[in-house]
Write a structure and sequence with these properties.
single chain; 122 residues; mainly alpha
Length: 122
């Protein structure tokens, strides 16, 4: 009777009533509590890698990075962004054109009293 009022079949009702969570669901619930606790203790600074290291250090649990990231997304928490990746300043870097024998290079060779082949003799 209650199933008709709720609009569900009897099999769905009993499935919900006697459902036993799988090992995977239990582990995920346990980890979500631990991840939230570690993130809270770090005052919101720890990200996925540091949380993973803390779980390994404190709980001796090896956890996949993707699982921790998924749990963090589910909980809506993020760590602080890391340092910006530095790019190399290529303004004064040598290029192919600098390596080609040009007039200034031959002038430098003549200032030393030789030619390009004269370098070998020095």
């Amino acid at each position: 009777m209650a199933c008709r009022i709720a609009g569900v079949s009897r099999s769905c009702f009993y499935e919900f009533k006697y459902h036993v969570p799988s090992d995977r669901q239990i582990r995920r619930l346990l980890l979500s509590g631990l991840v939230a606790d570690i993130h809270k203790r770090s005052r919101g600074t720890y990200g996925m890698l540091r949380i993973r290291a803390a779980l390994l250090r404190e709980q001796d649990m090896v956890v996949n990075k993707k699982l921790i990231l998924s749990i963090m997304r589910e909980l809506g928490i993020k760590g602080l962004p890391g340092p910006k990746k530095r790019r190399k300043n290529l303004v004064n870097a040598a290029t192919e054109e600098d390596l080609i024998c040009d007039s200034s290079f031959s002038l430098r060779c003549h200032d030393l009293g030789g030619t390009v082949s004269g370098w070998e003799e020095l």
